[in-house]
TrEMBL record:
Ranges for region Disordered: 442-469
GO BP terms in the entry: L-arginine deiminase pathway
PANTHER family: ARGININE DEIMINASE
Low complexity bias: start-end ranges: 445-462
Upper classification of the organism: Eukaryota, Amoebozoa, Evosea, Eumycetozoa, Dictyostelia
Domain of life of the source: Eukaryota
Name under which the protein is recorded: Arginine deiminase
Pfam family, one: DDAH_eukar
One function term, GO molecular function aspect: arginine deiminase activity
Source species: Polysphondylium violaceum
Amino acid sequence: MKKSNQLPKSSSLMSLSSIYHELNFNQVHENDTAQVVILNEPSLPQWMGSIHPNGSLYEEPLDISKAQQEHMKFRELLEKEGCTVYTVREILTGSFDQKTEDIQHRVKLEDFAFKSIIYKLDDQQDENELGEVDKELVSDQYKKKCIESMSNEQLVEVILTRPTIKLRKSERDTELLATEYSFKPLVNLVFQRDQQITTARGIVMANLSSPIRSPEVQVMKLCFQILGLPIVGEIPEPGKLEGGDFYPCGEDLCFIGVGLRSNFYAVQYMMDRDWFGTERVAVVKDYFDVNQQRMHLDTVCNLIDEKVMLILEDICGEESPMKRLVDEYVRDPLTGKYSLNRHDIEYSKYLIQEGFDLVYASDQNQKDYGCNGLNIGNGKFIVVDKATAKTIARSTKTNNQLLFVDFRTVTKMYGSVHCCSQVISRKSTESKIIDFTQASTISNSSSSDSDSSLPTSPSSTLRKQPSNGSDKIVMVAPTYFVRPRIGSELMNAHIIRQTRQAVLDDFSKLHNVLTKAGIDIHLFCHEPFHRTDQAVFVSEWFSTHDNNTLVIYPLASAAKRRERRSDILNYAFLPKYTKCLDFTPCENGDLRVIETTVQEFINNHPDQHNSNDTAPATNGEFLNFSGIVLDRKNKIAYCSIDDKVYSSKVVDLWATTLGYKVIKMKTSSPANSFLFVGEKCAIFCPEALSLTESETVLNQLYETKKKVVVITQGQMESSCAKVVELKGANSKVCLVMSDKCFNQFTKEQIDTLTQTEDTIIHCDLTNLESVGGHGLIGMIGQLL
């Protein structure tokens, strides 16, 4: 499509959808021919950003004039290859359709600019000292007068730089004197990929993670209104969505990344409303890496042909410490709702299963933005790194032309040609013309929806597992386990990032050894908005039992109660667990259990991410699963008893409900900190209890034919009892622990454990343990 014969000459209010009847304003496949592309050239806001690159989310200092030249050559290349290109500035000024005098356009521009300017009194100026004329000069009426006098170009500068003017009374000359001009420029608007995604359904407005970027969404929303393009919907808080995490891959499939910049809340919100428009949605989970260098999906992979994926080799394979995992959701053709079909498939394995050829990019290729090229269809792929281009060419996986553009200065702002472009229309043999009236209706109706995004469909069937160990478990990655700490090195953002990365590296090792042993892991993460710092200890708020029973415990901590999230409950426990025993009424002093279903529990206990409740409950009766150690085979429960945390009343109610004999131990310590009971063996620290209670426990263990490894208090403090027994491949019984824990056992103790276990698995968790991640039993939620 040539720009010269496609651009409209004039219109009262530009409407691309009405003028380009033959175009579809959506994307079905990244490999389809790009027709309309939106860019934003570097200008004054980016110059402002270059004054302090780090604070502007830039990678390095840069020369803005060189960035402008590179960006212009990129635009020229797109137009040469047949794309119609608009810039944000052209859309806002009205120069894109060669008509800048349209009143409707002007009103939109003025109203937006009005909200972008702030008049404030100087900090030293008392408002009571202002006269009537002075007050008029800081009023909305005066601001409106100023805006009405500005040209479209001036208004655009206001919108892009967002000025604040501080004023005080003047002793001479004019009535007021401006004492300070400050700006909140949209320094990252050059990266047009992120403010929205263009799906098979159309344009969906995103919600950006960084506070300095969030206003960009409203600017792009204004651009689409000026262009006359309908918006399918918009992601509300606490959802986070950025366009760099999205790839369309046909009517059947699309990819959406979650991790550093986008979250599952936004994905669920879109699936519930069918905004992806594909039969399947592959959610690519970045829960081990979460690194700024690889912030989006488009920084580690790219669709360079119909079935060819360029991918960073370092993220590929089960052994990779920064691997990505895929959860696949399938849309029901009758209800239109998505359900989980399969989960936690290593990304490169999933791609190969789906018939993709892979071209592997090196770490240096990725750092040089080789993965961030732009597929414009018609057999052409734009690259910014020649070394990556040669890798693609030598792979013989694609015959696409590789078009090079020098972008070395623009990339210093932390993005390349894919980041800098938003393709809003591609020519596809698969796609159909969108009913824009219907799209507008969707957009209008979505605005009245609740901002909560609850899963609405059952997940895949979970296999029944034997008791005392399970080859299916739930884990929550410690993505935000490391928090700033006053008076420590963790006040430094760089140290926080380093420590967080080290912790995730350890967790990745644990995930890897468990996966190699044949353990089926369903991995979730936690987000800042969840306010659940300790979510990695997922096993503390639930337990599973025979007859497809899920038990939910009454918890004292408000943060722990927030861990009972609807997405985990839905996708980890449904549809297998048909009975839910809800002990949460005890939190309010109501000593009873409600027999219900998981779905009813979800419906009756909405997520509490908006709750301001942080104080622990005081008037209830509490019990969490760390206070119970089960001998499932013999139906015996060893329970800690403490008035504040482990209520004797709740223990009695629990035991009666589930039919367990109880051995009570008076202690405020979690039972699993000093006692482990496996299928054939037990680990116990008698020093943790009184002499009488210790004898009672030991007698019961010997009575049930357990081989008992007695540990010292020092070994207990090294989490030697916080081990977990799981069944792996071929039902092999595995005892899992950290290296630190393993090294605390004597040779004789290890020999005893080896006699009762098929294998002992251990890995280095030094970094995780150093910040409070002690003991594996709390990190592994068993699904029996």
